[in-house]
Amino acid sequence: MWLTSILNIVPSIVSGVVTAYNKSKDVSIVAIQSAVGIASAQVQAMSLWIGHPLSPPSIMAYGVAIWFFKATACDKVIGPVLGYKWTTDPISGETAIIAGIVVSGMFFSGIANIIKR
Question: What is the per-residue pLDDT across 18-29, written as a single tens digit (0 to 9) for each?
């Protein structure tokens, strides 16, 4: 008697487990699809930004370019010609890492544009 009642409960437990598994797969698929949508929107935004003179990557590149100009042209050429001894502090820490990322990103985007042509 008790064996029959247990055997009657097993199919409902199994169907509940299968339903829960299918729902979790559906949630995972929706999460992956939304992540893909966000990533494609970011790619579209970056493709619009690259090449624009006031885009965030370009503005960061201007900062690095100004530092390099000051460190090379002003400190080594213009300063000594005018009789000044100028020095520019080195870039260090997180600023150096960000400057490296900016310079390499702009370099590789330029290479990508050349290859695309």
Answer: 676 766 676 677
Rounded Cα–Cα distance for residues 61 and 95 (Å) = 13
Residues contacting residue 98 through CB under 8 Å, at least 6 positions apart:
60
Q: Is the pLDDT of residue 101 over 80?
A: yes
Q: Closest by alpha carbon to 52, among 106, 2, 115?
A: 106
pLDDT at 6: 67
Which burial class, exposed, middle or buried, applies to 3 when counting CB atoms under 10 A from its CB (0-12, 13-18, 19+)? exposed
Tell me the C-alpha distance between 15 and 9, whole Å: 10
Give the rounded distance of the alpha carbon of 9 from its chain centre. 51
What does the DSSP 8-state code read for residue 55? S
